[in-house]
Amino acid sequence: MQDRLASIAAKLCQGAWTVKISLVLGSGGARGYAHIGVIEELERAGFEIASISGASMGALIGGLYAAGGLEAYKEWVLGLDVWDVAALLDISFDKRGLIKGERVFAKLHEIVGDVRIEELPIKYTAVATDIEQNKEVWFQEGDLLQAIRASISIPSFFTPVQIEGRLLVDGGVLNPLPVAPTLSDDTQMTLAVNLYAQTPKPTIHLPKEHQERQERLAKATKKLAQYAKSLTKDEGYSFFDIVSLSFDAMQKTLIRYRLAGYPPDHLIEISEDICGTYDFHKAYEVIEAGREAARRFLAEEKIVN
Questions:
Q1: How far apart are CA 21 and CA 187, in angstroms?
Q2: Could you write out the three-class secondary structure of 161-210?
Q3: Which of 27, 56, 151, 271 is catalytic?
Q4: Over the stretch 140-187, which tens digit does the pLDDT of each residue have?
Q5: Is 230 one of the annotated active-site residues of the chain?
Q6: CA–CA separation, 181 vs 178, rounded Å?
Q7: Are 126 and 70 a contacting pair, CB within 8 Å?
Q8: Pairwise CA distance, residues 12 & 18, whole Å
Q9: 26 near 55, Cβ under 8 Å?
């Protein structure tokens, strides 16, 4: 495989051809913002992303990219402030989840409109979990945003989605790094992005504007967490802390098994310590962490322009 990667690197550097790749984007909550930085760097290096398979935030970022809405989404999340985030939290009265997600997806609809997966310019797969049948569900046709909504339904946080009699939750419950949907792709390389790497957290410089916004959002998030703890009269971990830690532990274990069974040609590793599952206020920092990881991969493979 190293010889093939070296050949691909040489031809990219020479501008001899465009390398088509399959990109596998893993789940990990807010860590998924790193996928944006990875995609931007891969494009800058001259790769053509011909296929995307994703679970949870990987399905979201990959779907927006395939539909041409990733840049608009990035600008939106980087501009969110405390009151913007508060306005997006449509609390659910459904005991199966805290957030309905309708306001978030109304914004995503503004960005990409009505899109069907089979009409996308590249092959796309969103992976969800049929929680009652204990089965993976691959969305490779149908409404794009509906598929993404099913794939990102983190248990306890987002309410599950009912589609054709199936109760669907986050794809990371069974397959947090879905390489298998890309096995039949006619591409030169499969790259997978793992958001749970046991690597040191990178040091990211935050411009003043983003640092101040992140601090404001962090304070609001802390107050919300303290309120949640006060409801349970528990000075330790809150309910959502336990759910988040449990979900992360499960996904890290599943990733190891999945990679052993379906190894990609190459793995881009994002430190799991870059943020927590629900740290969506750290968008800038996490995007840049993804960019740095992609640059490191490109440098190691001697792919430079």
A1: 5
A2: EEECCEEEEEHHHCCCCCCHHHCCCCCCEEEEEEEEECCCCCCCCCCHHH
A3: 56
A4: 999 999 999 999 988 777 788 899 999 999 999 999 999 999 999 999
A5: no
A6: 7
A7: no
A8: 7
A9: yes
